[in-house]
Amino acid sequence: MAEPRTPAEVAARAGRATDLADLDGVVSDCFACARLVAWREQVARTRRAAFRDQEYWGRPVPGFGDPAARIAVLGLAPAAHGGNRTGRIFTGDRSGDVLFAALHRAGLANQPTSVAADDGLTLRDTRIFAAVRCAPPVNKPTPAERDTCAPWLHREVTLIRPTLRVVVALGAFAWAAWWPALNQVYSVRPPSPRPAFTHGAHWSATAAPELLGCYHVSQQNTFTGRLTPEMLDEVFARAKRLAGVK
Hints:
9 helices, alpha/beta, single chain, 6 strands
């Protein structure tokens, strides 16, 4: 089947994905956003000096984790030399180092590191995905790119809806990306005005997953102490309680 190259084609193909494997495959073949395609491919060609001997993924990065997840971790987008290099979300960069160490401490990952797609990492009761599936220049997708990519997120949430109980939004961008998904997948009208993003924010509705806010695991937050391991541990402990995960 032809690769999606327009917003309409993204929406149509996402809606036809029958399961997560199908969705992951077609996400990886998306060419709908010209700026993101050019950037991800440029990074894959030029490479960082430390990884010059590696072949970069250079494509959109699908979600990863338990297909029967009770907890979802929603990020912003893959890192240029992380997921865009390894082909797995939050894998091979400093943000992933922090995130997967925390998931391991919480008993949601079988190991504390995530360095390559074939490193044996597995997640328990947890799935990770991003609001935008391609690495954006300076980590800033445009509103149009966010909206074009949204059907991938909405379909992924739909496919794990039977088990999903909690969404952890990493940062304000992910927090904002959840509200359209809430409406599209659960037919729940987002509150107006929207609850502000803060670390530790909690929003709930009867017919939808609990939403928790967490500062993004970026170096800007973790290196400065704005987000500490203890703060992450508190978020995932709360997510487990709300999701009924032991």
